[in-house]
Amino acid sequence: MTIKDTAEEWQVTATETPFVGNKTSVRTDDVVMPDGTVVRRDYQVHPGSVAVLALDEAGRVLVLRQYRHPVHHKLWEIPAGLLDIPGENPLHAAQRELYEEAHVKAEDWRVLTDVYTTPGGCDEAVRIFLARDLSEAEGERFEVSEEEADMELARVPLEELVRGVLAGELHNNCLVVGALSLTAVLSGDGVDALRPADAPWPARPFEA
Q1: Contact by Cβ (8 Å): 178, 76
Q2: Any idea what DSSP says for residue 116?
Q3: Angle at alpha carbon of residue 117, lines to 58 and 57, rounded to 5°
Q4: Is the dihedral of CA 82, 86, 87, 92 positive or negative?
Q5: Could you read off the pLDDT of 13-43 as tens digits, one per residue?
Q6: 64 Cβ partners below 8 Å, 6+ apart?
Q7: What 3-state class would DSSP assign to 8?
Q8: Planar angle of CA 87, 113, 95, nearest 5 degrees
């Protein structure tokens, strides 16, 4: 038996969009169950996101601290952002986010992992990249606003992030998944075994 997620689409007999927001919306579908009954499912429709685990030559990860109003916390996170343009190459979006949030560029990019953040209630898909060979970006810094205006930046050893995750001190989804995934990579087949940065992403198809 192969343990692998598979695409599948159950019959939808009716659908509506009761709420449309600035970036996301809420959809209500009437879905036919295996026994023939029809149930209503509400979920958030999301454009998708990218995140970047940027690792420097000293084994430190670039992280930022940002206020997240829905959970009423300041969370330590890795750089991340929305796929604002339908069909946008996720690598280009990740490079943009690393520049805008940290004023950093990277020469080596790999796909670390792909995840659905909350598949029970949202269709958000996130591609987490590993970025290495970091350097300061050229030009002026991107002008941040709103929650990002209060951001703090730091470089933290990967081992310290893993300790914080397992101690229940760090909670951001992308940071948790990224740090634990990279730890598994480094203790396993190594970075060269990771998928290339332009690997296909069925959850959010794009043009190379």
Answers
A1: no
A2: E
A3: 5
A4: negative
A5: 999 999 999 999 999 999 999 999 999 999 9
A6: 76, 77, 78, 79, 101, 102, 151, 152, 153, 154
A7: coil
A8: 50
**Which of helix, strand or coil describes residue 12?**
strand
Rounded to the nearest integer, the mean pLDDT of the chain is 94
Active site residue 16: no
Q: Fill in the amino acid letter for 123.
A: D
pLDDT tens-digit map of 83-96: 988 889 999 999 99
149: CB partners within 8 A, 6+ apart = none
Residue that has been written with the tokens 């029809």 in this structure: 38
CA neighbor of 61 nearest in space, from 204, 178, 188: 178
The rounded distance, in Å, linking the Cα atoms of 61 and 186 is: 14
| Separation CA 197–CA 12 (nearest Å) | 35
Could you tell me which of 43, 54, 121, 153 has the C-alpha nearest to residue 94?
54
Give the residue from 51, 142, 49, 129 showing the smallest Cα distance to 88. 49
| Structure tokens belonging to residue 147 | 């929650």
Q: Which of 143, 148, 152, 207 is catalytic?
A: 148
Q: Give the count of alpha carbons within 13 A of 77, CB side only.
A: 23
